[in-house]
């Protein structure tokens, strides 16, 4: 038996004293015999074990997963096959992420919306509140409803009437609110939006989330994003 010290074992394995001690602490490396002077004396089996642990961690196995393999040093075929499948899935996720990133970089689109929606709305001048609301809807709606909503937004323009709504003072009087609601109600774009989504349920009926959750989330988002005066106008539009 060679009788290496802890530092010699670490050097041979290309690792550190701290790592060797950690392997001992978590039970991955058995304690060696000690010499007459009390110092540890490591042998070939310890070196093999450390190299095996090091190699498996480099391949992506956690120390917990390595511990689950047991104390034997046989070839962990099934564990490596499982690791290979995990790495393949990770590579695919990274490939898709890079593809999305390429779209964002190429079109200089913001990253708050899915790339396809951000690209579709690249030339649409939404208010910060409307854009934030669209971000929320993108997380809530089913694919078909979201596609219809996005298509409608591509035809949105900063009509003076919508600018008036965006700039509506919090203390706008009753007459101002009612007048704005009446004019917005008959605006062609609003009519088109209401035709596509005649009631809230028609918008989120295919959502992956429960209808109650979607309704609460949309309501909460509107209260956070729009002023009381603006919300009052929206309510008046539906009455």
Automatic annotation (TrEMBL):
The keyword Cell division does not apply. Keywords: DNA-binding. Gene3D superfamilies: 1.10.1660.10. The keyword Glycoprotein does not apply. It comes from the Bacteria. GO terms for molecular function: DNA binding; DNA-binding transcription factor activity. This is DNA-binding transcriptional regulator, MerR family.
């Amino acid at each position: 038996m060679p009788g290496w010290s802890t530092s010699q074992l670490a050097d041979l394995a290309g690792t550190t004293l701290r790592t060797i001690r950690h392997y001992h602490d978590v039970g991955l490396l058995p304690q060696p015999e000690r010499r007459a002077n009390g110092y540890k004396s490591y042998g070939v089996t310890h070196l093999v074990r450390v190299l095996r642990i090091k190699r498996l961690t480099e391949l992506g196995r956690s120390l917990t997963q390595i511990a689950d393999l047991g104390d034997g040093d046989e070839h962990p075929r099934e564990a490596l096959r499982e690791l290979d499948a995990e790495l393949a899935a990770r590579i695919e996720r990274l490939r898709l992420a890079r593809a999305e990133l390429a779209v964002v970089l190429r079109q200089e689109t913001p990253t708050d919306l899915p790339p396809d929606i951000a690209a579709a709305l690249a030339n649409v001048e939404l208010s910060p509140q409307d854009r934030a609301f669209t971000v929320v809807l993108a997380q809530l709606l089913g694919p078909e409803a979201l596609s219809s909503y996005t298509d409608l937004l591509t035809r949105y323009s900063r009509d003076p009437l919508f600018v008036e709504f965006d700039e509506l003072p919090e203390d706008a009087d009753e007459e101002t609110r009612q007048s704005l609601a009446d004019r917005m109600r008959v605006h062609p774009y609003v009519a088109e939006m209401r035709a596509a989504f005649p009631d809230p349920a028609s918008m989120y009926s295919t959502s992956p989330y429960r209808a109650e959750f979607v309704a609460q989330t949309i309501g909460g988002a509107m209260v956070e994003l729009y002023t009381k005066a603006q919300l009052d106008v929206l309510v008046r539009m539906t009455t």
